[in-house]
Amino acid sequence: MDNCGNSTRSLSRSAGASLPSVNSAAFNNPAAISLSRGLGIETIHYGGESQVGIITGTGRVGAAISNFPNDGTFFGNSPVEDNYSYRMRKVDGEKFKEDKLVLAGGFNLFGAKQKKGIQADVGLMYRKNNELDESFYGGGLTISINKFLSFGYASYNDVHYKDLRNQIVDIVNDDGTVIEGVPLGNSNIYLFDNRFSVYSYTAGLKFSNIAFDYIKFITKFEDNAFEDKISSIYNISYFYKTWIFSYGRRLDEGITDVYEDKKFILEEDYLESFIGAQYAANGGFIIGGFYNYYLLNELSVGLTYFF
């Protein structure tokens, strides 16, 4: 049935089969884009906004585009942002977002049509910071063995830019109270221009109706301006008829400024969980509900349409 095929469509990816969204797979490693024929539109709704991803494939080549990168989601790298913005959006329950456009494309080198043996896919990524009008690039590789075991590597360059000089901002204290309308001076300490590189390492397993993935992100800053950010994600998905059930765990290494019980505390090696359920309806639609997709302990809704 068509809806059963749509519920297992992510199993066609060379890597990242358990990940619940187009963005979470394609923009971690562009070589993991599904190459299946057709066109898909994915939206994830939270807080009155939609994260939109479009993916298409020809059988050997695939491409994806998104209005928001995967940064700051459960399945993405830890976002690079200034502390003023980070604390304020946590208090307000807002997801991380930047004015960026992200494109990714992948193609099969060999082995895609074989049921056994080695399959190799490569991909390229383009990221544009619209505020700076600067472009950044990256690439990835996945190797799949017998459609069962996969390994992947990807990297890309990026920037976090924000100029708060002479701006009036709200400051959040450790106890969660907000001081409104604080003027900042003209010092360059309020100019954030952090250049960095993100490296991802993946491993995955695919059974008949179960997929498991491990992802490790390492974010390195130019000139060693900050310590490396390191995150590890484990996710498993079970495909049952027209349903997909997912569960994940995420570990952010080092010290994290965590917002709990309406106050900020420093925690080391911080753990978070993800739960998702998706249903493949008739007509090519997949409807999903996610807990903690944006790392806000929130509930978000996903809608995907393949045709």
Architecture blueprint of SSEs:
Layout: H1 2-7, H2 22-26, E1 38-46, E2 49-57, E3 61-66, H3 83-92, E4 100-110, E5 118-129, E6 134-145, E7 149-163, E8 168-172, E9 178-183, E10 191-206, E11 210-221, E12 229-240, E13 243-260, E14 263-280, E15 285-291, E16 299-306
Antiparallel strand pairs: 1-2, 1-16, 2-3, 3-4, 4-5, 5-6, 6-7, 7-10, 8-9, 10-11, 11-12, 12-13, 13-14, 14-15, 15-16
Short recap of the structure:
By secondary structure, this protein is mostly beta strands.
CATH topology: Porin
Structural class: mainly beta
Order of helices and strands: HHEEEHEEEEEEEEEEEEE
CATH first level: which class? Mainly Beta
- What share of the residues lie within helices? under 10%
Unreliable runs, pLDDT <50, ≥5 residues? none
Strand order of the largest sheet: 1-2-3-4-5-6-7-10-11-12-13-14-15-16
| C-alpha geometry | globular
How many strands appear in the DSSP assignment? 16
Count of helix runs: 3
Terminal-residue CA separation: 14 Å
Major β-sheet annotation: 14 strands, antiparallel, barrel
Average pLDDT works out at 89
Rg, Cα atoms, Å: 20 Å
Strand content: over 45%
Tell me which CATH architecture applies here.
Answer: Beta Barrel
> Into how many domains do the coordinates divide?
1
